[in-house]
Amino acid sequence: MTTASGTTEVSREPEGAREQAGFDEIHILWISEGMSCDGDTVSMTASGQPAIEDIVLGLIPGLPKAHLYNKVLSPSLGGEDFLVPFRAAAAGELSPFILVIEGSIPNQNIIEGDGYWTSFGNDLKTGEPLTLNWWIDRLAPKAWAVVAAGTCATYGGIHAMAGNPTGSMGLADYLGWDFRSQGALPIVNVPGCPIQPENFMETLTWLLYHAAGSAPPPPLDEMLRPQWLFGKTVHEGCDRAAYYEQADFAKDYNSPKCQVKVGCWGPVVNCNVPKRGWMGGLGGCPNVGGICIGCTMPGFPDTFMPFMDEPTGGSLSSSLIRPYGAFIRRMRAITSMAVNKEPKWRHNRPELTSGYDPHWRA
């Protein structure tokens, strides 16, 4: 129920009945004050299937009415005007809502009482900055669903690499991998540096259909990623994969061939970008000549550095496939010569040599 102040009160219906009926209205509280560059928000705006505008304007049948609060997309002037729904949710006066966190979570404990790493608004009584950790501690337990947008929020990303002074981590590291939201959902991780636009919006749409009571919870893998998006490797969807099978490897970045020897980690990275593209089905790292550096993976970036070196195991696997690949290439070349010829009966001479037999004639 919406009050005169514009906040939505918690439903008084029995818990089971409400869960079965679903929600007619839901809020999306997006905080990008983690250790990040806001690139995930910017990338999300490029989605077209669906577009964030379609959800906010209610153009997709069956979804609950969604109210989005994101600083980049907010029509407010910022400041306290923008913070109203966040403060209401923290006080338990706004429900239901989906909490989206962008950016890695710094370890505030290592500097407790001696400053802060990142903040979002100020304490109304003391004027002191409110840390990202303060908001997560109060919002996550009240949220119907919690979503980590981008690799920084999912697994820590760049800010969590070896030698960092912040102790940064992913949202599941902070809340616990066994965390469950008010909607009985685990954290939903949508990695990417930044997120692939449709990957995030497709996941959000599934969550909203689930909130409406018309879809089951989204299936997640052991790293809490949507299975249907991250269940295959880059290599399995790459249009250069056939070159790997033939042991035909690129020696520089201008080549259209398999880039494993020049630093591509595609065979072991869970990501669908070669299949999906980046914007409007176009682009995507290997599709445009770039190597896969594993930005959707929990070990990024440390496990995949240095980026331009041949991946661990790449030399062995490429060596093992060379004899097979050389044989296959040769056999295919012979077959190609055979199938690239026209049959001998296609000519402009007066006799018919196609084998036509008018057997029905006397």
General description of the model:
The chain has 362 residues and is α/β, with parallel strands linked by helices. The protein has 2 domains: 15-228, NADH:ubiquinone oxidoreductase-like, 20kDa subunit (Rossmann fold, 3-Layer(aba) Sandwich); 232-338, Cytochrome-c3 Hydrogenase, Chain A, domain 2 (Irregular), CATH 4.10.480.10. The protein contains 13 helices and 7 strands. The chain has helices at residues 15-21, 39-44, 52-56, 79-90, 132-139, 151-155, 171-175, 197-211, 227-230, 234-237, 241-245, 273-276, 314-339, and strands spanning 25-31, 65-69, 97-102, 119-122, 129-131, 145-149, 188-190. The strands form 2 sheets. Strands 2-1-3-6-7 form a 5-stranded parallel beta sheet, with helices on both faces. A two-stranded antiparallel sheet has the order 4-5. The radius of gyration is 27 Å and the shape is elongated. The model is unreliable at 1-20 (pLDDT under 50).
The gist of it:
The chain has helices at residues 15-21, 39-44, 52-56, 79-90, 132-139, 151-155, 171-175, 197-211, 227-230, 234-237, 241-245, 273-276, 314-339, and strands at 25-31, 65-69, 97-102, 119-122, 129-131, 145-149, 188-190. Strands 2-1-3-6-7 form a five-stranded parallel beta sheet, with helices on both faces.
Protein traits:
29% helix; two-stranded antiparallel ribbon; 13 helices; single chain; Cytochrome-c3 Hydrogenase, Chain A, domain 2; 362 residues; 2 domains; 4Fe-4S
